[in-house]
Amino acid sequence: FLIFFKALMFANNCDSPLVSMLPDASFQSSSQSSSSSAPYFAKLNRRDGSGGWTPLLTDREPWFQLDLRDRMEVTAVATQGRYDSSDWVSSYLLLYSDTGRAWKQYRHEDGRFAGNVNSEAVVQHKLSHSVRTRFLRFIPLDWNPSGWLGLRVEVYGCSYKSYVADFDGRSSLLYRFNQKSMSTVKDVISLRFKSRQAEGVLLHGEGQRGDYITLELHRAKLALYLNLGEKFSSSRVAVTLGSLLDDQHWHSVLIERFNRQVNLTVDSHTQHFRTKGEGDSLEVDYELSFGGIPLPGKPGTFLRKNFHGCIENLYYNGINIIDLAKRRKPQIYSVGNVTFSCSEPQLVACTFLSSSSSFLSLPAAASAMGGFSVRFQFRTWNPDGLLLSTRLQRGRIGPAGGRGAQPEMTLDMLFKDSFYASLFTITVCFLLISTIFSGHKVNDGLWHSVSLDTRNLQITLTLDNEPASTIELGEQLDAEDIIYFGGCPSSAVPSYCKNPTLAFQGCMRLISINSQPMSLSHVQQGMLGNYNELQFDTCGIHDRCLPNLCEHGGQCSQSWSSFYCDCSGTGYSGATCHNSIYEPSCEAYKLTGSSSGYYSIDPDGSGPLGPAQVYCNMTEERVWTVVTHNSTAPVRVRGSSPQKPHVMKFNYSASAEQLRAVITGSEQCQQEVVYSCRKSRLFNTWDGTPLSWWLDGGGERRTYWGGFLPGVQQCSCSLEENCMDMNYFCNCDSDANKWANDTGVLAYKDHLPVSQIVIGDTNRTGSEAVYQIGPLRCYGDKSIWNAASFYQESSYLHFPTLQAELGSDISFYFKTSVPSGVFLENLGLKDFIRVELSSPSVVTFSFDVGNGPVVLAVKSHVPLNDRQWHYVRAERNVKEASLQVDQLPLRFLEAPADGHLRLRLNSQLFVGGTASRQRGFLGCIRTLTINGVTFDLEERAKVTPGVSSGCPGYCSGSSSLCHNRGRCIEKSSGYVCDCTQSAYGGPACKEEVSVSFDRESSVTYTFQEPFSVMQNRSSQASSVSRESSRFREDMAFSFLTSQSPAMLLTVSTFSQQYIAVILARNGSLQIWYRLQMDRNSDVFSPSLSSLADGRLHRIRMHREGKDDTDLRYSLSSDAELISIKSLTLGKVTGVDGFDEEVRQAGSRGFVGCLSSVQFNHVAPLKAALLNRGSSLVSVRGQLVESNCGVLADSKTSETVDRGKEPLRNASQSNSAVIGGVVTAVVFITVCVLAVVTRFLYQHRQAQRNASIKEKEHRHNMETAYRAELHLHNPVRDNMKEYYI
């Protein structure tokens, strides 16, 4: 059906020129510089007059307009400059209208059309979706800076046939069926409409069995209710699409249904969904109604407001409903007054374009009753603004009705968005005298009516249809001369009118003062009032949340000029919720210093899959990813047969797509199948048909059993040649009346995991089976060390074109010894994207989406061509671009508000070089990931000259040489581990750094000095409203104590915010967040049991936006820690702003052991030990370096070993046996002593060598750590810098 309609749409070549034959009267303009540059000279390629249209130099809002004489379908436009001149338009807006009064902007790609670069070349734009219109208006935005504005145009299209019906809000058309009911399995309904109201039914039909279909306007959006066979219930869920559909302009609708699959298209946006109900057909009784429901209260109806507007070209399954109605066919019954021409109301609006300088001033007409009244309608997205301001003349009404002069006063009407609704305030001379809470938000893009009346010695304020708010006055208030709408002039006159933080930005219409309508046309023509930064005859509101550019389920909200994404609860962060807050694998978690436990991993990063919870088992040799399912216990099976088999489906803690991503990205995966049987066969049948089998991850039947190779009906005992009966390939196939075992491990990755098991031979006497399917277990992350080495400057790897129109993130590691080179590049006709090492210490990220080249650069204080691994992450989306290098401050740049959005590329993606084969990269690149997809550099390198797979060096393998965030550094003959960023020490960053505290002990690490806070406060304040999901806190530490209450850790800011981790009086762990002064602190208790038990406990916390993971708590605020001041371990005194319970814990301090404390990229405990004289570290009280963390681990191990002691009451052997045992023990002891003596000698020699090496290593690392402290950046913890 969709193909059929598209074929109809493009069957005729709708590209004929429409302007060349128009009469002169069809051309209009805002002005003309001379009679020879009149608008009718602006025909493409014509040289009449002065060769085109040119407005007056004084025309501050030039426009050029065409009247096509009838509604036409327009498919393309073309422009040209004025002939043989330096006058042309370089960019413009295109508006269209049916009446020439109410206009709408055509949104071409990102809004504006690219114009000309000289006077003769023709620039043509084919419209992505055609428009049916009579009037077109060109609004020049930019022109030749060395000349002036000149224009010649052509419009292409064809005639348009329209069948129109006009509904007045009380009428409808009924299409009656030939039989009692109509049952259809597929439907196609298409129509176009334009509406005067935000509510109204367009289509309704229902059946007695509960089927219904309703298409309605609700809050200016289109809602489709569709049910097939489900009985009526109190709740109905609509599929909603579109926005701002009450703008009095045409909108197209297409509904396509086949069985329960439905496509709903509104204008250019389509939503696919599956309808409710169990049936496949839509059964409607008697009739379908269009334009409304004729009988309110009819069973099954749920909206009573009829449609008020026009509908054209209404087709129901190929039937032209309006044509039948117009010809008065008996199938159509008309209710109320339906006419067949579209009436055009003159609801002309104006748009306030600027939030700082727009205003409209109108004279206050005299009122015979005294006082004044104002009425108008407005719509906006902004949360607050000034609607009205005027100077008041205050006079007391005397006994004779006279009025005495009084001091002047001002009246301001403002609105401000609150959490649930909008707040309207009336202020007289800075004194708040009236407040109204609307029942809903008014910054929802809908039209809202406001009425203000100061007559009858009272002020009355009315919003929409809500009850009026009235304040009694003791005197009459009159508007003196002028009323300002939407803002105030920037000049000092009038002095009483002052803009608040934001003036009004939105649309207004239907303005009346003292019951006299104000003509906006007269204002535009200079005949009435004054204005600035206004656009007339159109409401320029635009829904920036349609389509929703927030990814991964982020909630979109908007202002007039931008949109914002709330990423709370999504597991993602960033301006568009693009970046996963979770690591992609267990291997990645281990590299950050994490230990075994449950974690959320996001196997495709910023891709569409989302996070999944797994268990990460981090052993010394390998890191296992364990994915559990719903049936891990043994299952006993009896009574199953091939005809009625036992079936068990396994539901995993991850989706099928997530499982496939985990398996694909792992080096090896396996799943144990424990199977025991008695008189229950697997494959032993006369025709070889299997009696039991399992389904793989893709749902395919697999008949090989645990431990054997795919494709063969055998078990592991056959592979090992130890089956009970060698005539069979499985132990169970011997069919013995005793228990047999065919346990094995499935390890063929492409077939994992087991999704279902089927057992079919346990229905005979004494027959039974027991099975247990283990979790999916995988190890290794193939992406982390997937690397390629580039050793020729002209070499590169090429991949398919980068799919990055609206956004992309690129991350990788590199190491090199050369001063510059291009990491990757992708080109388009004009657009491009590139990441490169531009100098030995600078990485640049550059791109162009049509707004001009953008360059972000990060400069390192140390060279980056040091043959060590460095991390780069570049991201570009419709909101901003950012660049991160290692742990250096993040550079980011906001995108222009109304610039081009789409990055259009068409060449291949070049990695390690460029298309020109110049400035290529020499060195290694690994872990290249783009939009969550890891590129296989090794495979591509195998077939590419000048590039080899892998990367040489000790630090280039998958083995974890340096642990707990330690950085591996290549040396000429080996490697060393840089533990600067780690809370651990030792040669491999594995040794606990522990300190014993007493009650008076404390360690304070200072992040920022007060003067640096003052310098950065303005930029930080401006960033908070833009981006609340970029920040994070990541902290980890171990502790051992028997004291409660106790203060473990506090983080405080200069703005009185804090985070505190304490032990409460009962020993339970409490985490306190105080992020906003006007709200109570958030308190979480992850463990209710006492942790003051003398045992070592490991704590790790991570916050992204409002979410505190891993146990997932949601905060009441997503505020950022602004200007972090310090982090304190142990006792805290004299701190204002702390909650009482936190203050008490702080005064008690901490008695016990703290170990391996990490806060973001700072290790304060380690800094205190190595840098006691540093100004950044302050130590109070007794502080003793300890090995309590290691001792606690050893105690734990000892406790476990004691559980293996033999029973005390075991029976004793006779004396002869004891004598033999003693003799044997003496002999063995002598042998062991000899072996141990030799071992101790070798061990002592090795220990002496290791001790010397470790002392040298520790000295080097301590020196590096001290250097790091001296280079400490005051904004390092924030890691953000803003460039406008």
UniProtKB/TrEMBL annotation:
Cellular component GO terms held in the UniProt record: membrane
Domain Fibrinogen C-terminal: 577-629
Disulfide bonds: 924-951
Main location: membrane
Domain Laminin G, residue spans: 164-342, 349-539, 786-951, 1010-1188
Segments traversing the membrane: 1216-1241
Domain of life: Eukaryota
Domain F5/8 type C: 14-158
CDD domains: EGF_CA, FA58C, LamG
Compartment annotation: Membrane
Domain EGF-like, first and last residues per copy: 541-578, 952-990
Topology in the lipid bilayer: Single-pass type I membrane protein
Key words, A-Z: Disulfide bond, EGF-like domain, Membrane, Repeat, Signal, Transmembrane, Transmembrane helix
UniProt xrefs under NCBIfam families: GGGWT_bact
PANTHER family the record matches: CONTACTIN-ASSOCIATED PROTEIN-LIKE 5 ISOFORM X1, PIKACHURIN-LIKE PROTEIN
Family listed: Belongs to the neurexin family.
Name the record gives this protein: Contactin associated protein-like 5a
Organism: Myripristis murdjan (pinecone soldierfish)
